[in-house]
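Minutes, project check-in
Item: structure for the 508-residue chain
Input as provided by the requester:
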Amino acid sequence: MNGIRPHTRRIAIAFFALFLIFALTSLLWLRLNKAPPNWDDAWYLSNSLRLYDAWTDGGVIGAVRQFLAALGFKAPLITALPLPFYWLFGRRWHFAYLVNMAAMLALFGAVWAIGNRLRGPRAGLMAVYICGTAPLLYGLSRWYLVEYPLAAVVAMAFWLALVAAADESSLPTLAFGAVCGLGLLLKADFPLFVSPVGAWLVLRRRDRWKTLLTILIPAFLLAAPWYCLHWRATLQNAISAGYGASAMIQGTGEIFSLPAVSKYLGMAVKRGISEYYLAVALLAAALAAWWRREAFRETARLLLWLAPFPVFVFGGNKDVRYIAPILPAFALGAACLLDCVTERRRWIGVAMLAFPLASLLAVSFGWPYAATDAGYAIRYDPYPWRQDEILTTIAEGALFPHAGQKVLLLGTDRGRFNADNFQLCALQDRLPLRVETTAYGRSLDDLLRQAGAADYFVYKEGGEAESEFFNTHAAELRQRLRESTEWVEIPFGLALPDGGTAHILRRR
């Protein structure tokens, strides 16, 4: 026993050192980055502030009511996860990113435990390192999106399935079911990621019906209250997101065509795992096939985790972030194979893993060399986009407490300058503003009617161009409002980081 303790201590120190390196790197990036959240992440953060306000104003009952009504067509747990951090550190949406740090710890812990079970503690540590340096995973740790916490929950579910398959007691199976319930509250397509390993678990147990019920009951109790109210809208959104018109915008062409498949696979490699890790994994697999074929038996169960990948290859929506929950399986497979072929010369494995950390720093901070963005892994933006200043300018000339809620119409729809991140800033400052967007107007007449109900109109002139799919009549609307005697411009005149200029119009 005394001989085991120093080894265990070294493994624990190495694990927490890796976690601290990657967590502090992400926190430093978040500290340096001045750009606002984009569309979806700003929307989630806005709803997290609404939920926190419902909790502080109405107690548990108010929070439950708001939670059951939250989002409407997307699972709402992402809005509730920041509440402990708001309570501890204050009502600022920036603290919500601590959710990702907690998810990182859970993800790394589950990945290490799986790697340790499949091959050993060294393989587990290597898998943690690969998860920490894979572009999609470290990139998403700096966005407030569902996929990073979802990756952690899927990893925990896979680990619990392995434990439950080797243990006939009900506790691991019950925990697996509870994690599945939480996963369903994170995203409706969670069953896609865990159904293969869940089916394998049920078939492995002697008491199959009891196992199935032990999984389904806690999952149902956790997820059913929200899904009973929103299942139809959630189902429609899931289908539309995968194969609808909005999905095609992020597609790569005809989904079964060779160019579309090859383009997506290239994106998944470059933005997901990196060309370097693919080369390392292929080399390790080739050497393992030549020297030690038993390594493939150790990693065979990871195919259950990777099984959903063809759904994304042949889906309409090619946003690469959706494969984040299966990337830990790749990390584990590559780590186990690399550990196998470098077992007698461990320094080789360590040396081969040095470059990805340098790449992470280069992409994130431009040091030790300048690197280009890789999908969601991007360099920090040191320039603010002035949403707070624009709202302050509006608030200084408005009598909000006496005039009730005002409507602000956003005539620009870009990632850094859109209705969602303006609404987030308004909620943060407790301004009685409801922010709407012109992005989905089908005609100029529709937008004019929308502007007729607004009190303020804000848009960006110059800089990054509008999308060819959305906001197609925005330029016409701006011209009409500027020519109208109903609207007057509030002086602002500050330039934005993309070279554009923000304009504020107020109804007379």
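Outcome recorded: The chain has two domains: 4-365, 387-507.
No further action items on this chain.
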